[in-house]
Amino acid sequence: MDMGISGRTALVCAASKGLGRGCAEALAAEGVNLTICARTAETLEATAAGIRAKTGVEVKTVACDITTPEGRAAALAACPQPDILVNNAGGPPPGDFRQFTHDDWIRALEANMLTPIELIRATVDGMIGRGFGRIVNITSSAVKAPIDVLGLSNGARSGLTGFVAGLARKVAPQGVTINNLLPGIFDTDRIVATVTAQAKAQNVSLDEARARRMKSIPAGRFGQPDEFGRACAFLCSVHAGYITGQNLLIDGGTYPGTF
User: Fold this and answer.
1) Could you tell me the pTM of the whole model?
2) Within 13 A of 220's CA, how many CA atoms are on the CB side?
3) Spatial CA neighbour of 232 closest among 8, 2, 6, 25
4) Amino acid 39: pLDDT
């Protein structure tokens, strides 16, 4: 299927690895020119080189912390008028909410709620003016099924979800869609670290810990970043213009609810 977005431009955050990279690669495969950002310059440049070699699209890089005003300014200077915006940032640490300080909450809100809102604010009017825009926020399956030890993430990402629900309906008539992708367990560095810690705590091998974790997923496996990326590319396509304000779970069937 031709996604109809060849020649468009995209700003993809936290795109040097993991789910962000999966989204960047999938968009590039559709002929979208990219600006990708991440904190580690070396990893970012290696990712960009790989995408250029494979697809031939233009890939700009911005080594920055997108959760800071300086980082956002640098990213937007490189790509001030994207047709596509993919918001992404690492989640805050787990813990008991009794131990979270005010500063902990502010950092979580800055990273997982306010940064996406700031980037949307900076780019959505340009999209409206051109009559086309696609905004995809990578949030978490915890938005649908909160995880007790991830209180910071539950709160910040749910705040973003509520904001998007209102704005998406307001900009839809101008050809701009805003949707959220809610990942479950994917085979990324984050889950490797989590499973490694679980293996140590349970005194089992890493393979055994992975197998145990997979048993909790109806699909019987971890998701792959490339399949997550393809879902993102579809939401950014011309075929998804009637999909907006939605929260798409990609979790291998883990969420047990009907709705």
Assistant:
1) 0.94
2) 0
3) 25
4) 97
